[in-house]
Automatic annotation (TrEMBL):
Organism the protein comes from: Apostasia shenzhenica
Family: Belongs to the purine/pyrimidine phosphoribosyltransferase family.
UniProt-annotated location(s): Cytoplasm
PANTHER family reported in the protein's UniProt record: HYPOXANTHINE PHOSPHORIBOSYLTRANSFERASE (PTHR43340:SF1), HYPOXANTHINE-GUANINE PHOSPHORIBOSYLTRANSFERASE (PTHR43340)
Superkingdom as given in the UniProt entry: Eukaryota
Protein name stated in the entry: Hypoxanthine phosphoribosyltransferase
One Pfam family from the record: Pribosyltran
Catalytic activity: IMP + diphosphate = hypoxanthine + 5-phospho-alpha-D-ribose 1-diphosphate
Record's keyword annotation contains Transferase: yes
EC number: 2.4.2.8
Domain Phosphoribosyltransferase: 16-168
Cofactor: Mg(2+)
Entry GO CC: cytosol
Main location: cytoplasm
Amino acid sequence: MDLDGDIERVLWTAEEISIRVSDLAAQISGDFRHLPSPVVVVGVATGAFVFLADIVRKITIPIAVDFIRAESYGAGTESSCSPIISCDLKIDITGKHVILVEDIVDTGSTLSKLIAHLKSKGASSISVCALLDKPARRKIHFELVGEGNFYRGFDCPDYFVVGYGMDFAELYRNLPYIGVLKPEKYK
Ligand code: 5GP
Ligand code: MG
Ligand code: MG
């Protein structure tokens, strides 16, 4: 099997991603530098694991790291719009500033569900850091909590993308770049 051969077009190379991740980490490090307690950085499993690993190593302030798991897609390319939280946080976030790290925001239903969940656990602010944003497909508007910010890496055109943590049917997560899958691979 040749992973690269399944990709129709590369949208962002590993180098382009790395530069943008550095920018986002610098913004976050600056915005949260005066807080008295460590920020809790929460990766949304599985898709955000590569982005999370890269960005936390570029953040220069004290942070705690945890994961939460949300599932909406199954093995298809369309969001179900009713994601479930299938694995919860380990860290107590009561009174903490939380940054949710996501691979991509599509309809917005996963994020709005996760934000409501973290809010109910007593986070004092909730920010979102998404590598990709597909604003054209937004169905649900999500609200940040407290002084939370929305950090976005790149605007993503309306294609199904894979790589840099993102999958189709659990494959392609290990590609170092982000690309568009050849349509015959999922039709
Ligand atoms: P939403 O709930 O915003 O519709 O979708 C969020 C989740 O769906 C993302 O966290 C991501 O896991 C998945 N997703 C959305 N668009 C894409 C895409 O183009 N490619 C891949 N691989 N996953 C996507
Ligand atoms: Mg995701
Ligand atoms: Mg997926």
